[in-house]
Amino acid sequence: MRCDSTNILQIMYRFVCKIFLMINPFRKPYSRIETLKEKILFVLIFSLFIFLFLFLFKPFGLAQLKTGIQLPISLGFGLVTMFVLFIFKFLIEPIVINDKWTLGKSLLWGLFVASTIGAANYFYINIIFHQLFIFKNFLLAIWTTLLVGIIPVSVGYIISYNRRYRSALEKASISPDEVLWENEVIIRGGNPKNECKLNPKSIVYLCSNDNYITIVTILGDALTKTHLRGTLRAAEDELIKNTSFMRCHKCYIVNTQFADHLTGNVQNLKIKLKPHGLEIPVSRSKAAEVTSRFR
After folding, report:
1. CB neighbourhood size of 192 (10 A)
2. Checking CA distances to 99, which of 33, 47, 203, 224 falls within 20 to 30 Å?
3. Shared domain check, 227 and 86
4. Range 66-81 average pLDDT
5. In the 8-state DSSP scheme, what is residue 193?
6. Are 82 and 44 in contact (CB under 8 A)?
7. Do 157 and 186 belong together in one domain?
8. Measured between alpha carbons, how far is residue 113 from residues 64, 126, 146, 154 in Å?
9. CA–CA separation, 200 vs 178, rounded Å?
10. What is the mean pLDDT of residues 253-275?
11. Is 7 inside a domain boundary?
12. Whole-angstrom Cα distance, residue 218 to residue 275?
């Protein structure tokens, strides 16, 4: 019975280990590429946190010091922290960190940096108070720095990870035009009583005549006209998210996906469309914009 229990435990242990190795978060890539602004902000915020934490809460024996020297001593800790972080951020990290950097390496690197700050602050205290080097106190200083620094480091990693995650999503996202092409567009022309649902890919052009809008669509080689009561300006607002539609005349909006080439001159410019050789007039005020668009 014991052998069976032992075997089951061993199997479960191996299974958990395999799962952990498969989803091990510490092996996930973690980009540490930072801009100059991000580096400066990190150094300033972390150093300011160390200074304010020590001055306000006065842990680790600072409360026993005279009131007059608590502020400069705490400020000194902040300056030492700033100096060490500056060395790491601007001189060492550009050499050490590479494209294969992972979350695990980043966490270990953060612990190493914090330990270095603790060591530097220990020597700072020794110089200020003319103390001898004691290895036990040296390790205590490093441990203290790790405890104090875990808050800003953790918050910094969370903010950095979320910011890079959002940035990756934005880079991988589909543009609004591509999303719009896959869905129907509703054109009302400003009149709530109208509602025309169309695939924007099928709209060739829109034109206005008094208080009516004509929407010309294509299916295969056949052109279809849909009439709505409304204004072209309202219809333009309903299509504004899709940059393929262009207002080329006070009476016309054309889908540039169907445009072939321009004909005429500035005085009599027209857009030649592929379906049936249709020609859409271009107003003089829009001539420069249209010409630039089709250049």
Report:
1. 8
2. 47
3. no
4. 91
5. T
6. yes
7. no
8. 28, 20, 10, 14
9. 11
10. 88
11. no
12. 8
Cβ(187)–Cβ(196) below 8 Å:
yes
Q: Could you tell me if residue 12 is inside a domain?
A: no
Domain count, the chain: 2
* 215 in Cβ contact with 232 (< 8 Å): no
Tallying the residues shown for the chain, one arrives at: 295
What does the block give as tokens for 85?
């972080």
- Does 99 or 105 have the greater pLDDT score? 105
Token pair listed for 121:
């602050």
Rg, C-alpha atoms of the chain = 34
Cα–Cα distance for residue pair 50/151, rounded to 1 Å: 10
Q: Tokens 């441990």 map to which residue? A: 143
CB pairs under 8 A, 24+ apart, for 34-43? 34/89, 39/89, 39/90, 42/85, 42/89, 42/156, 43/82, 43/85, 43/86, 43/89
* CA–CA dist 128, 55 (Å, integer): 17
Q: Which two tokens mark 295?
A: 């250049």
**Would you say residue 112 lies in a domain?**
yes
Q: Is the dihedral of CA 67, 68, 73, 74 positive or negative?
A: positive
What confidence tens digit (pLDDT) does each residue in 205-255 have?
Answer: 999 988 899 999 998 889 999 999 989 998 998 888 788 899 999 999 999
Q: What is the distance between the alpha carbons of residues 95 and 8, in angstroms, rounded to a whole number? A: 48
User: Residue 111 has which token pair?
Assistant: 């612990």
Tokens representing 138 are 């040296």
